[in-house]
């Protein structure tokens, strides 16, 4: 994991407002659906002027348990951070991520390595460091920048509590 993981630590993340595409799906099995929903989300945000300053982050939010996600059947929501006062309309919705403690695993990796990182975080790192995921709380991938070729910079974020 050393070549993929750049850093991992528990951080307090702020309450964050998200706009999300309302048509959540199991995107691992349907790339065209993922692309369509992502394009619709970004087109909506652009029409509202939310992309102009570059002051946003793209997230993929997982609401299913990690056990479900391991088999590619997870329901995911494609999200953008937005100001709290942002108004949305179908198919775009709005939600918040609560303030809390998160294991944040900063990585640089190719798409084929994503499952390995999730497996390592949930299967090894959390328990080895005295943490457990908060049951029912969403975990997510945060993309601090656009991909550079085949490599993605991604923060894998899991809400945690001590054992």
From TrEMBL:
Pfam family, one: GyrI-like
UniProt domain AraC effector-binding: residue ranges: 6-161
Protein name: AraC effector-binding domain-containing protein
């Amino acid at each position: 994991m050393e070549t993929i993981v750049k850093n991992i630590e528990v951080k307090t993340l702020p309450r964050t407002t998200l706009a999300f595409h309302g048509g959540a799906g199991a995107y691992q099995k349907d790339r065209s659906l993922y692309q369509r929903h992502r394009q619709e989300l970004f087109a909506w945000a652009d029409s509202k002027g939310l992309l102009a300053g570059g002051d946003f982050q793209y997230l993929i939010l997982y609401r299913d348990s990690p056990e479900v996600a391991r088999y590619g059947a997870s329901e995911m929501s494609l999200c953008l951070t937005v100001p709290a006062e942002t108004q949305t309309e179908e198919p775009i919705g709005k939600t918040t991520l609560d303030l809390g403690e998160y294991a944040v695993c900063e990585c640089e990796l190719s798409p084929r390595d994503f499952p390995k990182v999730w497996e390592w975080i949930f299967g090894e790192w959390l328990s080895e460091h005295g943490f457990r995921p908060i049951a029912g709380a969403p975990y997510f991938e945060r993309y601090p920048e656009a991909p550079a070729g085949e490599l993605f910079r991604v923060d894998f974020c899991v809400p945690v509590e001590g054992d």
